[in-house]
Every structure is written in structure tokens, then in C-alpha cells.
Amino acid sequence: MTTPQLDDTHDPTAVSWVESANAPDTDFPLANLPFGIFRHDYEERPRVGIAIGDQVLDCLAATHEGLFADVDPSVRAALMSWSLNALMALGRDDARAVRRVAHRLLRAGTPEGERARAMAREILVPMDAIGMRVPAEIGDYSDFYASVHHATNVGAMFRPDNPLLPNYKWIPIGYHGRASSIVASGTPVRRPRGQVVATPDGPPTVAPSQRLDYELEVGAFIARGNRQGEPIALADAEQHLFGLCLVNDWSARDVQQWEYQPLGPFLSKSFATTVSPWVVTLDALEPFRAPGFERPAGDPAPLPYLDDATNRARGGFDITLEVWLRTAAMRAAGADAVRLSRGDFSGMYWTLGQMLAHHTSNGCNLRPGDLIASGTVSGPTPDSRGCLLELASRGQSPVALGNGESRAFLQDGDEVMLRGWCEREGFRRIGFGTCAGEVLPVLG
Q: Rounded distance, CA 4 to CA 16, Å?
């Protein structure tokens, strides 16, 4: 594997003067420093923030205090914006410059850190005192189908003798999602209604979805875009990826079953997609790179525009992902959430770089702040399946929750929480925070 591009921001011995950032189980140690958008309850204007322990570095306040004087004026202007689009548009090099400055500001024992610590009350905000927003103004959203385990499991439910269609191992399958209904973690999700059928041939009725599901996914925000008509080569793809987040692509399976042929998902997925609030940069993830999927004998090699030595050696990311569920009955009893599954993002058949290269291969232009998502992350074992459709075998084997309840699909009052983190010997553990949403009853 190619030697990772590491610097002092990955130093596992570095200590922050923000004490909560030094806890071994924090998602946001000094080695992470993800970007997000937050808002004070008393203030209309959102701000750029950087997570550190249980605090947020207010980039607007820090810039006003002169703490980012070492970066380019265009970068300072982006840090004073109300979304991450401006910083994303500048590209990964400028985001890396911000990361390095923030690391010195928040590190104990540096001159910059001592100066920042002296004005902590002006530049730090407790996480529990703010509201988080969707990190960027998302112009377009595309969702992929990149887990071969998920595709095989779902395909087997409908085509037991031929679970994977002929194109799957040749092309990163995806569809164009709905950007307007993407919401931040913590936003309740209303159960949708739609056309559903009792038998495959219909006729349909309009009713609330009875097969509401979650999908555990990883999302990637676009940094610099490309001109229309100019594809992005796989070798350059990661220069156009700003960072990663968690995604729950809520799905109404009964609506999906009736509508998806011949053009794919539509109303079954456009009602809501939840994203986690913190964007973990590719620089923070550098110590946790993994090889691309090792294709078994007999699988076709990717076409040349989807293949190169670097992608094979380190195109993946070793991210542990979990799904947790808390029902209304659990909340009423004061009981903890239960874990439904644990998976690993390094097992995806297609890498994010391949997804981006394919997305633009026809000349499609991507723009800063656009979001692409991986599709459901599922593994080879039953406890690593990333949606209830798989876990409960299309509703035929409901999942026991340990308190007498079970779930074939989601019920009103259920809260779904996605979590993700990276761990590797010799480096600090880093995490993504939580991507959460509670199911509310259908309107009307």
C-alpha cells in the first residue's frame, strides 16, 4: 500500500487544552477536527464550526479574533460563511491549511494554543448549547448501490436464481436522489404515504407505508467540481472529495416495490434523507485507508477508467458502522437503545473514487456541496446487514429487540441512530458523531 500522507495533525501523542478532546472514546479528538454548520438558538445566522471534544470552535469568532490570520483571505472569507460550500469550492489544499491552523490553536503547549486558550470563552461553544444544520447547501444528491453483499441479499429476495443483474460487477449502479428533502441529524421524519399493492399485479391503493426502513450509508461531499463535458479521472477523483459523513436513506419498501420498475426509486426515497452534521475530511481519514475490494476469481476486472494501482491499494476506508434503535416503549421505560447491526465500510465493491469517476464519465458536472452516497453498507454475515429489509428477511423474520418487542419494519416512535468510527493501532480513534431520526406518524 502507498505510504499515507501523514503530518503532525495525526500525531497520537498530541494533547488538546480542551480536556474532553483527550478522552479515549471521544469521536472528536485533536486528530479529527471535522467541519460542520451550527446555529445559536438566539441567532438566525448559521456559522462554520470545527468539532473538538464536546465543544465547537466557532470559526467566525476565531477569524474575527485574528486566529486564522495565516491562511489566505479567501479561506478566511469561507470560514465566515453560513455554509461549507465556499470552503469546499476552494478545494482540499485550503481545507488542509485550516485543519493545520486549527490543530495548532487547539493543541496544548503551542504558542497558538496558549493564545486561543486565553480567549476560550469567545471562540468555543458547548455542543449541547447549539443546533446543527445540514453541512452544505446541497444542489444535487446521487445515491449508489456499492455493497455487493447488500445487492446480493436484496436480489436473492426477488430473483433467487439470479440475485445480481449482469451489469452489477461492471458499473457502479446509482440513481439521482432528492436534495430538497435532505435533513440534519435529529430532525424527525414523517412516515410517507404512497401507492402500495397487495399482489404484484395490483391494483394499487394509496395508504401510509407499512414497510418503512432505514439504510446505513456513508456520504461524501464534493469539493471542487468539474466543467460540464469534462470527466474526472479516477486518479484525480479524491481531490474532488471534501470529506465523509453518515447517511440514512429512509426507504418505503412497499412503495418502492410497486414503483421501481422500469426507472428505479422515486417517491419511496424522496421523502427524507438524514445526514450526520460533521464532515470528516479525507485528511483526517488518511491513517485509516484500506485496499479497494479484492475481487474473487471469475469477477471481471474494472474497465480502465475505473481502475488504477492506487485505487486498488488504498481506495477504501476502514470505517466501523453501527445501527441502533430506540423504540417509544424503550424511551418510556428509560431503557437504552439496542444495536441492530455492525458493518465495515472497507468491504464495499466500489470505492468512492470509482463512484465519482463513473458519475462524471459522461461529462456530468458536479458542484461544490453536492452529495454522493454509497448505498446500504452490508457485510457477509447476518449481523452486518445495513437495513431491516435484509435483517428481517423482507419482514418474514422479525428482529427481536430484547424487551419483548420485535421489528420487521419501523414503527411510529422508533428512533434510528447510525454511528461510525475508525480505529487503528498507532493512531487516535476518530468518529463521525450520530446520524439520528425519529419516525413520526403520517399526516392526515
A: 24
Q: Which CATH class is domain 8-132?
A: mainly beta
Cell of 350: 466500489
CATH number of the 141-440 domain: 3.90.850.10
Cell reading at 162: 439470479
Taking the C-alpha atoms of residue 337 and residue 390, their distance in angstroms, rounded to an integer, is 20
- Taking a C-beta distance cutoff of 8 angstroms, is the pair 209, 175 a contact? no
Among 187, 175, 192, 57, CA closest to 127: 57
Q: Which one from 10, 150, 240, 359 is the annotated catalytic residue?
A: 150
pLDDT tens by residue, 319-353? 999 999 999 999 999 999 999 999 999 999 999 99
Per residue in 22-74, pLDDT (tens digit) is: 999 999 999 999 999 999 988 889 999 999 999 999 999 999 999 999 999 99
Closest CA to 220 of 433, 386, 366: 366
Residues in the chain, overall count:
444
**Bond preceding residue 262 cis, omega within 30 of 0:** yes
Dihedral angle at the C-alpha atoms of 200, 149, 234, 99, nearest 10 degrees?
110
CA 113 to chain centroid, in Å, comes to: 30
- pLDDT tens readout for residues 189-246: 999 999 999 999 999 999 999 999 999 999 999 999 999 999 999 999 999 999 999 9
Rg (CA), the chain: 22
**Is 150 a catalytic site residue?**
yes
**What is the separation of C-alpha 439 from the centre of its chain, rounded to a whole number of angstroms?**
20
* Cβ-Cβ contacts under 8 Å for 389 (sequence gap 6 or more): 154, 157, 213, 251, 253
256-275 per-residue burial string, b: 16 or more CB within 10 A, e: under 16: bbbbeeeeebebbbbbbbbb
Three-class DSSP category at 249: coil
Q: Count Cα neighbours of 143 within 13 Å in the Cβ-side half-sphere.
A: 24
What CA–CA distance (Å, rounded) separates 261 from 327? 33
- The three-class DSSP label of residue 418 is strand
Is residue 130 within 8 A of residue 39, CB to CB? The reply is yes
Q: Which residue stretches of 362-415 are H helix? A: 388-391
Domain ranges for the chain: 8-132, 141-440
